[in-house]
Amino acid sequence: MKILTVLGARPQFVKAAVVSRALRANGPALVEILVHTGQHYDADMSRVFFDELTIPHPDYNLGIGGGTHGRNTGRMLERIEAVLIAERPDWVLVYGDTDSTLAGALAAVKLQIPVAHIEAGLRSFNRRMPEEINRVLTDHAADLLFTPTNTATRNLADEGIEEDKVRQTGDVMYDAALYYGARAKRCSRILELLGLAPRRYLLATVHRTENTDDPVRLRRILAGLATSGLPIILPLHPRTRKRLAAFGLEPPPTVRSVEPVGYLDMMMLEKNSALIVTDSGGVQKEAYFHQVPCLTLREETEWVELVRAGANRLVGTDPEMIANELEKGVRDDWTFGMDLYGNGDAAKRISDILSRECTASPVS
């Protein structure tokens, strides 16, 4: 039995690390073929994650990245189709909501190969976001939909997706946080390298298109961060760095920009920060797993349960709101519970389901 996994962006590498390990644990009868589209083509944003997370290096690296959404998706679709024809997998496995996700799903369904989608059912209800379009289309094309939360499962039911296609397994990112958190504590030296003391700094990430490609929004975010009473560490995404230069903007004195860091170093920065400010869906969840307060630089989030639970606050890009919440956030009492995303066994549950499905309905 053969599963072909399509990856392309940093969060997908993290999720695949735990799922690929679980698939390998099911024995040699189940073979996984890894296809890296190259969507994150910078070595610091992709190859380092395969090394750090002990994921087998890709069987195929398509080298596609750096173009527009439409151009990238089209090129990925063509190249993934060729791989599928050559490999003839029993299932195609995709993660999350990137262009790679949609291209992998479309290439598979056009060849009548079943598709499994991990992290299905998420909705921000903002159709201006490319990620929202990707996740909706992928969900409606998929044959198996692995949801991380009750909210995600309800979203799929509301859209009329057949109940027998949906499996609520919990969140593989929680699996990763449990497994790699201990490893990061043993291996990472990022706090010492940056001269940081636990809880004496904030951590920020800014990478979403709607924030980085709009000079007004990006300027407003920087203005809000300028008010922080604690230093802010900002691992600078390559796209954000380019946009700052193009718009003639510089981080304020309160912000210390650093090169992108590996997953283990990022986990240590998250675990030890006093507060996290981000527009990343994955970092929102990781903040919750590590019980660190989080401010989200968006008007909505697909992780609505975090806001409802009091572990996450939406601040958008209003400088005054960001400033107020930065001040309040480091001294307020925040609410955390660890039961929103399953029990940390999502990867095993997904692997077991896929193993049964491959056995039951192999490709002829």
Give a written overview of the molecule:
This protein is an alpha/beta fold and 364 residues long. 47% of the residues lie in helices and 14% in strands. It has 16 helices and 13 strands. It has a 7-stranded parallel sheet, sandwiched between helices. The chain has a 6-stranded parallel sheet with strand order 10-9-8-11-12-13, sandwiched between helices. α3 crosses α4 (99-110). It is globular and about 60 Å long.
Provide keyphrases for this structure.
16 helices, alpha/beta, 14% strand, 364 residues, seven-stranded parallel beta sheet, 13 strands, six-stranded parallel beta sheet
Short description:
The chain is α/β, with parallel strands linked by helices and 364 residues long.
Radius of gyration computed on alpha carbons = 20 Å
Mean pLDDT: 92
> Beta-strand percentage?
5-15%
How far apart, in Å, are the first and last alpha carbons? Answer: 11 Å
Low-confidence runs? none
User: In order across it, which strands form the biggest sheet?
Assistant: 3-2-1-4-5-6-7
What is the 3D form? globular
From N to C, what is the helix and strand string? EHEHEHEHEHEHEHHEHHEHEHEHEHEHH
Q: Roughly what percent helix?
A: 40-55%
State the secondary-structure class.
alpha/beta
Count the beta strands: 13
| Structure annotation, total helices | 16
Largest pleated sheet: 7 strands, parallel
